Predict the structure.
Amino acid sequence: MTTTSDIDVLIVGAGPVGISTAMLLHKMGHSVRIIERREGPQRAPAAHVINARTFEVWRQIGVNVDHLRSLAQDPQAAGQVHWVTKLGGTVLGSLPYERQGDEMLALTPTPLRNLAQHILEPVLVDELSSMGIEIEYSTQWLSMVQEDENVVSKVSKNGNDEDIKAKYLLGCDGASSAVRRASGINMEGPDNLQSFAMIHFTADLSSLTRECPGVLYWLCDQGMGGTLISHGGDNEWVYMHPVDANYVVDQSPDDFESLVRSVLIDVPVDIKILKTSSWTMTSQIADRYRDGRVFLVGDAAHRFPPSGGMGLNSGVQDAHNLAWKLHAVIDSQSPDSLLDTYEPERRPIAQRNAQASLENAFKMIEVFEALGKPDQEGLKQAINNQQTHFDMFGLQMGFRYEIEGSTTPIAPLSDDVIRNYLPSIEPGCRLPHGWLVRNEQTISSLDLIDLTEATVIAGPSATANINYLQVGRDFEDPANWWGTVLGLAGDSYITVRPDQHISSRTTS
């Protein structure tokens, strides 16, 4: 038994959320260890939607976002979702898949992309390693004891136990979080909406998709169901096949190959089964996010249906919200009560994301109900009704924290709120993006924001007696972002938190 002390934060779980948390805290100057029970990075596709806000967070950390985006699927190939009898069969209807075009550069420096987790995660591991932090794989978190100033975790690797003492413990260990269970935190919401078999395979299906390239194919032939998901490179696919709740993955590779072939039209194609597993769709949120010196982040705190791609993205944004608060408390800049704001800010966002994802999942039933009716117009309308499912830019970018200084209530969820993002300087909102020039280089307004301290941005004629960045002095504003997008007068200023959300505004 060995004991390690004097680290600031122990992170349990090294998926994209845990890695992002580690990078944030390291960049803020804190000592971290990150452990993971798996032997290495994710090997099979899981999450595949990386929305603009998540890329923005990684950009602020200093991750090579351009490289990440170069690994993603081309929007031309992954910009549609289709309802088909079988792959290569009749296309019953199609919709655009999210907003991925260059027109989105007016609202974000990093539009959404489809980037499968098993491609993403090893790159994030390398980024973390370049910072001097190695993930401790094959390490099981066992238990903890909370003390006045620390939390001591018992972990095990290769049969050797170790006690790790840290100021804080973060459970980034996913839906079945051991940290959450040990903390006595319960999940609220339905835990068994639908079960699926996941079949990860490679096959050159280009002859079947050439006329209708896309990222999702909903299978509508009678008795089949499920979804084919394109993961891009090397013709990688996943077939999500709905199964009974008691389903056990014990078929042979030949059986799984036959199942895949059953949803393709009859063409000669080589299929290689890479991995199979089963999972259950749920919609649950932890009843609390904090237990003393322990915090839940990502899927440990919330589980959404995949209909909307909000899981990984919400987790990275949890980390973004929590990290700067931990920094401020560890460095004695703020009282411990600052950490109490994590749950009331992030849990309502999880509730909204869960509601939208759940509504998306249930709304899909309309399509399958319409399939059995002779009225084709009814089927077209049912498919058209799914637009919100695949166009959630407003929800992804427009979420707002309820903080002091807000003057308007947060709007209830609606199709308009989910789909449409309107830049706002209301306290609690993300700082709106605009293209600026600093040191003769084009930057985003988001690039102005410091990772550890609040940033004050002032208009060109402001004379406040505070430390601030000023339009025209510290950066150029060629498109009048300050006046046109923010709608602020020349003598106004705004204060932005390290997580790029506005904390206050002064308009005179």
The CA atoms of residues 462 and 491 lie 4 Å apart. The mean pLDDT is 94. The two ends are 62 Å apart (CA to CA). Residues 2-72+115-189+284-345 form a domain with the FAD/NAD(P)-binding domain fold (CATH 3.50.50.60).
